[in-house]
């Protein structure tokens, strides 16, 4: 068979049976290996669809420039489409992404602009905002916006869904996928559920992302958002491509569990895949252990290839530096809280307090940082060294309200976050907060983590 250009080879990726990692799980577990696409990821499917839909709608004209905020894989798909169709590409990317992903995009002719990861999406420095601004400034440019562009979901509805349905001869009972923009989960899920409404879908989320809590409670909780390492899944926004009505369950997976599972996929199944593939398989198998029956067939989509992560999860030094190669379990935030034996009370300042009251409180209780509360909600924080420098600059601040000097709130983390994950999240200065089952808030500092790890 001869193809007219590389983009005609997108899709029709193989379904492969897991033979080892599924030990002890009933039913068959199949993985859809998306690195067989020409850009080595499933995002080729939606990239070409977004470009072709934009051409049809007159949004992309000959000689135009494609501008996108991308974690790399969408960029690769767009770059291939651009080469085949004669467009230019500029991509903005968060600086947590692998260097390999940036170099790969440059290799296929794109210009890449790297932006800071730990700023809010509406900050002008974020990769979302920079892409939007470039789109406004560059004439004849097209900003696909993979998050809200429904061609993304449609691509998977039209290709991934039917391929899975046909390859399993309609026997699929469960579909699992990581959720980033939501396209690969929701387009495929919509198609499969139209074919058979009993197909159960399991979305894989990360700690540090809003999806699971939003699905389960309807609350968009900014306290769920904190930096994490896994690339491609989890969000701090609700993209239009995430249709919660077709995602039945969410499972959260830690960076470490995902990294360890990805390496096992390579070593034990010969599937040299990317980091979010480990998230998908770890989360899906955890769910399958409890829920799958002998006659069931689960399909898990594996988004991309391992080459993009050679400097990270496939590098032993990197894994060790992140505490991901430790065999011994360090325990979780829950263990730190349990060890306090209920003897501990969170020290807080109220929104109405004066700065001098907060200082007296911190001195009296010998703590260096406290959350600021308003009606039971955490609205900010005070840390002694930042406060000190502010007061030295302006001594009158002692009589100001705490809200005039407070910083951002400490981040909330899940009760079952493991200590290695916690340690990657406590900033140089700032502690993290945990809410227990009784809705009591606890603070965990770097010192607490060190103490628990060395016990
Ligand atoms: C490596 C990787 N995994 C998972 C995803 C999530 O897929 P989706 O955006 O379809 O939800 C992406 C998307 O960028 C990705 O690049």
UniProtKB/TrEMBL annotation:
Q: Give an example GO biological process.
A: cysteine biosynthetic process from serine
Domain CBS: start-end pairs: 342-397
Q: What Gene3D superfamilies does this protein map onto?
A: 3.40.50.1100, CBS-domain
- Catalyzed reaction equations: L-homocysteine + L-serine = L,L-cystathionine + H2O
Q: In which pathway does it act?
A: Amino-acid biosynthesis; L-cysteine biosynthesis; L-cysteine from L-homocysteine and L-serine: step 1/2
The record, for InterPro entries, names: CBS_dom, CBS_dom_sf, Cys_Synth/Cystath_Beta-Synth, Cysta_beta_synth, P-phosphate_BS, TrpB-like_PALP, TrpB-like_PALP_sf
Required co-factor(s) are:
pyridoxal 5'-phosphate
Please state the span of the N-terminal signal peptide per the UniProt entry: none
Q: Provide the Gene Ontology terms for cellular component.
A: cytoplasm
What this protein is called in its record is: Cystathionine beta-synthase
């Amino acid at each position: 068979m001869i193809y007219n250009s590389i983009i005609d080879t997108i899709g029709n990726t193989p379904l492969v049976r897991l033979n080892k990692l599924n030990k002890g799980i009933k039913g068959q577990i199949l993985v859809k290996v998306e690195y067989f696409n020409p850009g080595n990821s499933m995002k080729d499917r939606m990239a070409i669809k977004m470009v072709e839909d934009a051409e049809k709608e007159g949004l992309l004209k000959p000689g135009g420039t494609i501008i996108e905020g991308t974690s790399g894989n969408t960029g690769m798909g767009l770059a291939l489409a651009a080469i085949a169709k004669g467009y230019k590409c500029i991509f903005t990317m968060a600086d947590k992404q692998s260097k390999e992903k940036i170099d790969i995009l440059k290799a296929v002719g794109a210009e890449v602009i790297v932006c800071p990861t730990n700023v809010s999406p509406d900050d002008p420095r974020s990769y979302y905002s920079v892409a939007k601004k470039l789109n406004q400034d560059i004439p004849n440019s097209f900003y696909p916006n993979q998050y809200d562009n429904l061609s993304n979901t449609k691509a998977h509805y039209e290709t991934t869904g039917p391929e899975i349905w046909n390859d399993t001869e309609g026997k699929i009972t469960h579909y699992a996928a990581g959720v980033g923009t939501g396209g690969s989960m929701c387009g495929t899920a919509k198609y499969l559920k139209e074919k058979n409404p009993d197909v159960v879908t399991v979305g894989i989320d990360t700690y540090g992302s809003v999806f699971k809590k939003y699905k389960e409670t309807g609350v968009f909780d900014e306290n769920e958002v904190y930096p994490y390492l896994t690339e491609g899944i989890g969000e701090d926004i609700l993209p239009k491509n995430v249709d919660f009505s077709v995602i039945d369950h969410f499972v959260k997976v830690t960076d470490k569990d995902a990294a360890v599972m990805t390496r096992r996929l390579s070593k034990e199944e010969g599937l040299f895949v990317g980091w979010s593939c480990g998230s998908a398989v770890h989360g899906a198998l955890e769910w399958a252990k409890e829920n799958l029956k002998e006659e069931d067939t689960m399909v898990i989509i594996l988004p991309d290839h391992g080459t993009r992560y050679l400097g990270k999860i496939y590098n032993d030094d990197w894994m060790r530096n992140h505490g991901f190669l430790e065999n011994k379990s360090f325990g979780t935030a829950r263990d730190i809280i349990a060890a306090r034996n209920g003897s501990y009370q969170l020290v807080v300042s109220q929104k109405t307090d004066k700065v001098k009251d907060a200082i007296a409180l911190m001195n009296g209780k010998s703590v260096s940082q406290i959350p600021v509360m308003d009606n039971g909600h955490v609205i900010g924080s005070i840390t002694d060294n930042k406060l000190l420098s502010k007061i030295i600059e302006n001594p009158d601040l002692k009589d100001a309200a705490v809200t005039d000097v407070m910083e951002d709130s400490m981040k909330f983390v899940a009760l079952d976050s493991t200590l290695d994950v916690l340690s990657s999240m406590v900033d140089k200065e700032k502690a993290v907060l945990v809410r227990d089952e009784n809705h009591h808030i606890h603070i965990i500092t770097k010192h607490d983590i060190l103490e628990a790890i060395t016990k």
